[in-house]
Design brief:
single chain; 279 residues; alpha/beta; four-stranded antiparallel sheet; 22% strand; disordered N terminus
Length: 279
Amino acid sequence: MTSSESGTAAAESSPRPLEDGFPAVRETLADAEQLLVCLDFDGTLAPIVDDPDAARPTEDNRHAVARLAAHPDVTTAVVSGRSLQDVRGRIDGPAIYAGNHGLELERRGSIAVHPVARKRAARIDRLCTVLETTLASIPNVRIENKRLSGTVHFRSVPTAARPVARRLTTAVFGAFSDGALELSRGKRILEIGPSIPWGKGNAVELIAADEPPGTAAVYVGDDVTDESAFRAVEPDGIGVRVGGDGPSAASRRVESPAGVASLLTRLADGMSSGPERRP
């Protein structure tokens, strides 16, 4: 297990509101020659919605990402739990896309897929098929087969039915995983993926390794799967969690995608101001 995936890699505390600590953020970024901005999608660029297919980035976030992506000293990346093809079609501009929590990575004109995840894709497919049948009686449950991983969505499921849906999902998973797959929780979802020490933090580390010396990294995300990415950029860079004030490896937080847009706009304004930029 890599350091970015270890739960003890960084001490976790409640992130400070971004505005309260912005002078420190400004100081961290002011001397950077280059900037790497990595962004989650759902709950970060786009508000969480009941129907995942309806998720769209806010116009302010779309505009801010486009401004950052156009700057020669900024590398932008979207790092999402969605499949690469899915998230690629939802936001234009970033130079790099990571899908399926970093299991697939598009950069420099090519796509890399984790070899173990590729081998276990058939298991994911079979499990999603069985879950479709098993959960068919649960109102509004949705099984998303992302080829390298799968997601069971409970957001639109009646509250009383959610524990039943979780129990059935867990039971089916236990019968099919055979140690090759793992089950994890997110915001009103259960995620199924290959049981390997890999996540968003590893993808961010790979992306950052390609950047020139003197690059400062920023990662913005809203869910438990983003914690490894926060650990990958902190403390030399800035991790920003969207929503919630519980313990996190991120040092800063904003309340919503609107706060993300404000942050990205300030970063774009700062990069446009020249060598002595002040986000």
